[in-house]
Design a protein that fits this description.
- The chain has a domain of 112 residues: Immunoglobulin-like (Sandwich), CATH 2.60.40.680.
- The strands form two sheets. It has a six-stranded mixed sheet. Strands 1-2-4-9-6 form a five-stranded antiparallel sheet.
- The protein is 19% helix and 43% strand.
- The model has no long low-confidence stretch (mean pLDDT 89).
């Protein structure tokens, strides 16, 4: 046999003259189908809001005496997000206290409306808002996560008990 002769694959039982590695191909197809299932699961998680930025499970709320806080359950690192604080009708001056853990994890970009004044206490940063005592008021904190991972901080309204808030920050 010379170097220029072509070696043809043998004829298979089904009559085709192909050389293939059937066991490898079947394993590859199995792995490929499992990857499709994984991608489908990621899409479903994203639609539910478990990857941040929208969906029915992306946000949650905490009820406190005199207010409720709506915050992201999942957010993304260095992506803008917001916390909404809804004050129930009450006093003319309302206080929102955020623990020092909040400042270590989030950059507070703006507050709407601006607080009348803010103070630093042993509990953390205190923002004081002047509100109409006869109607509910809403405050929006525009923020940006500074580090990926789990963020835990505490929030309190006026001099009431604080509540623990947890947000997972995706990289």
């Amino acid at each position: 046999m010379s170097d220029k002769e072509i070696k043809f694959p043998s004829i298979r039982e089904d009559g085709l003259q192909l050389e293939e590695h059937r066991r490898f191909q079947e394993r590859f197809w199995t792995v490929e189908r499992w990857v499709w299932v994984g991608f489908g699961a990621i899409i479903i998680l994203a639609l539910l809001g478990l990857t941040g930025s929208g969906g029915p499970l992306a946000r949650t709320s905490a009820s406190l005496e005199g207010a409720s806080i709506d915050y992201p359950r999942f957010t993304r690192w260095e992506a803008p997000d917001e916390i909404l604080v809804e004050f129930e009708p009450g006093g003319a001056e309302r206080r929102l206290t955020l623990s020092s853990d909040f400042a270590e994890t989030f950059q507070l970009e703006s507050v709407q409306p601006q607080p009348d004044r803010s103070e630093t206490s042993a509990d953390g940063e205190v923002m004081i808002f002047r509100v109409d005592p006869q109607s509910a008021a809403q405050v929006t904190l525009h923020l940006r996560a500074q580090n990926p991972g789990m963020a835990d901080f505490r929030a309190a309204i006026d001099d009431g008990a604080s509540v623990s808030i947890s947000t997972f920050i995706f990289p």
